[in-house]
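Hey,
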Amino acid sequence: MKPPVRVKICGITKKEDALRAVEFGADALGFVFYKGSPRYVRLDVVKSIISELPPFVTTVGVFVNEEPSGISEIIGAAGIDVVQLHGDEPEGICSLWPRVVKVFRMREFTDLKPLERYKVSAYLLDTYSPDLPGGTGQIFNWDIALEAKRFGPVILSGGLTPDNIDKAVRWVHPYAVDDAVDVSSGVEKEKGIKDEEKLRLFIERAKSVFP
């Protein structure tokens, strides 16, 4: 039997949203440490949230062109499990931490070329925007994600919502057992604040495609 897709809820800023996401079945929670993001969350808040999470929930720290020393300091203080690099970080720094997710922004198949240089735990594919490093709310051609699987585990992001997650999982997930989906703006009622019903529906529908 094929296992259900893994679900990461990103842009968590409140303890209530984190606990609700876990209750609904989220596998991972993402915390944005990039101060230019409307979903930026302070280190002390993240520490407080993580201290109340169950032991088998993966926590992810999202960074954009942060100095490696700063990343190490933050993840050590907060108890973060996985580093997610969302900027223009060179491939060399990806070996500095045990588990790294590198984000690549997609417009066309040629945008997959840089993945060849990065040896990471997973590749998160988001939609390209000239103005934002992420959280655009727009989808890209999911056939690109299928092609990306030859490099390793893929996390599909970009414009996912409760209304399209079923189609997204059926399109991308059937070809591997270690893929995941990532959502932030698609389950919000305002930037940084999750909508309970959207959160529940997204996770429920993502995980019910391959019961």
